[in-house]
């Protein structure tokens, strides 16, 4: 058993969050993770309020355990999704790609535990001061939209700066990373890439095969120039995007190329035009498993490492 304040706070068996991945994390995956004792998270991504309400209701049918919804704050539908989540009184909301300040009031009034992703100490302190229940400190090893710092440096600095629990994310895909996160001051971990290959995950076969086949230097970051850096697998899409970026192509052109590219990867398995977002930990993901098996393996590995740790000190 690993004790964690986050388990008591949310009512979880295990201190493991499944990252909210746009297009990927739907109710089926989230419910499977929650039923296995972790925190399953539905991604609202850029979807509208009707889709999100439907997914939340499906998840409530599939599990009686706590689950969360991730709100991507750059979404044009963020405000209407925020209201639906307050109406539905979802147990947990995580946020990404921005400061959730303007939605805190309606979420807290609905009794929701709000757990923002923070890329810096400054935002961690700010959201703590307005009522966040915990923060997810996500380093740049992660997939998708990323911040500046790495997990190794971000987690201890955030843990020192706030009193609320810290969930470490970015580069964590096995029990070794989970044990390390504890040493850095985290109370739990969030994994995205490892859950991409879960049996219950809807990602296309092509997407899952890419994760399993990935080596250590298989990802690239594009979009730094436009201020929205995104980590994804090196594919024809990212190579083209990177070239256009280097050539100084306008934001508008780049956005045109990027629109729909994640959907093409997740839903169609389009290896040519798809944007396959994934973290650096893809190189550590070797097999397909159920969500319950992933959680069991993470816990067993982490516990074995932590139990053995005293032997390192003589
Ligand atoms: O959000 C993510 N990962 C994502 S979002 C996404 S969809 C997207 N696609 C293209 C461009 C942009 C987004 C795919 N993957 N992770 C959490 C995360 N949040 N990473 C970084 C941040 C972040 C960045 C700045 C959070 C807050 C923030 O605040 C800035 C401020 O206002 O202080």
Helix and strand arrangement:
Blueprint: H1 5-10, E1 16-18, H2 27-35, E2 40-43, H3 49-62, E3 67-72, H4 78-88, E4 92-96, H5 104-109, E5 113-118, H6 121-129, E6 135-138, E7 144-145, H7 151-161, E8 166-169, H8 175-183, E9 188-191, H9 193-196, H10 205-213, E10 219-222, E11 230-233, H11 236-246, H12 251-258, H13 261-268, H14 291-308
Parallel strand pairs: 1-9, 2-3, 3-4, 4-5, 5-6, 6-8, 8-9
Antiparallel strand pairs: 7-11, 10-11
Bound molecules: ligand TUI.
Structural class: alpha/beta
Main beta sheet, described?
8 strands, parallel
Low-confidence stretches: none
Following the backbone from N to C, one meets helices and strands in this order, namely HEHEHEHEHEHEEHEHEHHEEHHHH
Relative helix content: 40-55%
Subunit arrangement of the protein = single chain
- Cα separation of the termini: 25 Å
The rough form would be described as globular
* Portion in strands: 5-15%
Bound molecules: ligand TUI
Major sheet: order of its strands? 1-9-8-6-5-4-3-2
* Estimated radius of gyration: 18 Å
**Overall number of strands:** 11
Mean pLDDT: 97
Please, how many helices?
14
Organism: Candidatus Enterocola intestinipullorum
GO molecular function: nitronate monooxygenase activity
Keywords: Flavoprotein, FMN, Oxidoreductase
Protein name: Enoyl-[acyl-carrier-protein] reductase FabK
Structure report:
With 314 residues, the chain is of the alpha/beta class. It is 42% helix and 15% strand. It has an 8-stranded parallel β-sheet. The chain has a 3-stranded antiparallel β-sheet with strand order 7-11-10, with helices on one face. Helix 5 links the parallel strand 4 and strand 5. The longest helix is centred in the C-terminal third of the chain and has 18 residues. InterPro entries: Aldolase_TIM (IPR013785), Enoyl_ACP_red-II_put (IPR017569), NMO (IPR004136).
């Amino acid at each position: 058993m690993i004790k964690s304040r986050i388990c008591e706070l949310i009512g979880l068996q295990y201190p493991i969050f499944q990252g909210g991945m746009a297009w990927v994390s739907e109710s089926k995956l989230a419910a499977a993770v929650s039923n296995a004792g972790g925190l399953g998270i539905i991604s609202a991504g850029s979807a509208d309020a009707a889709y999100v309400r439907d997914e939340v209701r499906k998840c409530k049918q599939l599990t009686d355990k706590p689950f969360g919804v991730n709100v991507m704050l750059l979404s044009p539908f963020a405000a209407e999704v925020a209201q639906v989540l307050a109406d539905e009184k979802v147990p947990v909301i995580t946020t990404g790609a921005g400061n959730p300040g303007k939605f805190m009031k309606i979420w807290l009034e609905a009794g929701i535990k709000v757990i923002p992703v923070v890329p810096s100490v400054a935002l961690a302190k700010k959201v703590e001061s307005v009522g966040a229940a915990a923060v997810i400190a996500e380093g740049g090893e992660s997939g998708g939209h990323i911040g500046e710092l790495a997990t190794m440096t971000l987690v201890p600095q955030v843990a020192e700066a706030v009193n609320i629990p810290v969930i470490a994310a970015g580069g964590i895909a096995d029990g070794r990373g989970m044990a390390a996160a504890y040493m850095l001051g985290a109370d739990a971990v969030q994994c995205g890439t490892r859950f991409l290959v879960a049996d219950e995950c809807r990602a296309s076969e092509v997407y899952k095969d890419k994760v399993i086949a990935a080596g250590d230097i298989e990802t690239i970051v594009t979009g730094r120039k436009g201020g929205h850096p995104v980590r994804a697998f090196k594919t024809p899409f990212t190579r083209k995007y990177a070239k256009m970026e280097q050539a100084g192509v306008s934001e508008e052109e780049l956005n045109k190329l990027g629109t729909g590219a994640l959907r093409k990867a997740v839903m169609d398995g389009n290896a040519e035009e798809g944007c396959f977002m994934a973290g650096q930990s893809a190189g550590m993901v070797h097999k397909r498993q159920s969500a319950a098996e992933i959680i069991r393996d993470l816990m067993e590995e982490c516990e074995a490492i932590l139990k053995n740790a005293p032997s390192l000190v003589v």
